[in-house]
Amino acid sequence: NAGVTQTPKFQVLKTGQSMTLQCAQDMNHNSMYWYRQDPGMGLRLIYYSASEGTTDKGEVPNGYNVSRLNKREFSLRLESAAPSQTSVYFCASSDFVAGGRGEQFFGPGTRLTVL
Amino acid sequence: KQEVTQIPAALSVPEGENLVLNCSFTDSAIYNLQWFRQDPGKGLTSLLLIQSSQREQTSGRLNASLDKSSGRSTLYIAASQPGDSATYLCAVPYSGNTPLVFGKGTRLSVIA
Fold it and tell me: Which residues are bridge partners to A76 per DSSP?
């Protein structure tokens, strides 16, 4: 099992450019998440998808959109990148069902710099 | 709103010491608590998950305890090794079985 995979690993954008971060999991998990990690701020939730076909905003959703393409894939889109979106982005998945352990598993991250 | 605090922010110990990392949370109505390890420039590795009905979990030299009523968890590392050097994060759900709220972590250095 590959677990949670993310592409790309690194990306440099100019202000105003757009891009999509890709995430896939092969653990048959229902729930998927996008977090960003910034120095001094810790990890913060951007968006999540409790199940295929649903998405919800997290703590810091402004400037982002998401798509739960199918059960395996959950993408994060920056429509017009800003320097404040320079961060490390992590995708995660879990067995988020009633009575489940709810353990989250993380991908290796995408390091994004916006100039 | 759930808030998670980890103390200390950084810790340096000589090899072989036993150590304790602390995590506190403001809302005791949690579904579970998860401890992660993060190496520099890497993703998060799940170490231990404690369900709300449990008091502790063990994995090798690691032991995590949970006291829901007081809003505290500790991660005990026995006989520390230089390979244990990393940042340790604890996290609890926003509410029930939902996305996680993270502490800012404890950066551990084990000196040979």
Answer: A21, A66
Among A6, A57, A64, smallest CA distance to B44 is for A6
Phi, then psi, of B21 in degrees rounded to 5: -110, 140
Question: What confidence tier does B95 reach under pLDDT thresholds 50, 70, 90?
Answer: low
**Over the stretch A75-114, which tens digit does the pLDDT of each residue have?**
999 999 999 999 999 999 998 666 667 889 999 999 999 9
Greatest distance between any 2 Cα atoms in chain B: 42
**Chain A within 8 Å of B71 (Cβ-Cβ)?**
no
Chain-centroid distance, C-alpha B7: 10
* B96 shares contact with chain A (CB less than 8 Å): no
pLDDT 10s digits, A48-81 = 998 888 999 999 999 999 999 899 999 999 999 9
Residue-wise DSSP of B48-65: EEEETT-SEEEETTEEEE
Q: Tell me the mean pLDDT in the region A7-20.
A: 97
Task: Identify how many contiguous H helices and E strands chain B contains and give both numbers.
Answer: 0, 11
- Which of B93, B39, B10, B68 lies closest to A92, judged by CA? B93
Measured distance CA(B28)–CA(B77) in Å, rounded: 24
Cβ–Cβ of A104/B46 closer than 8 Å?
A: yes
In B, which residues are within 8 Å of A43 by CB distance? 89, 91, 100, 102
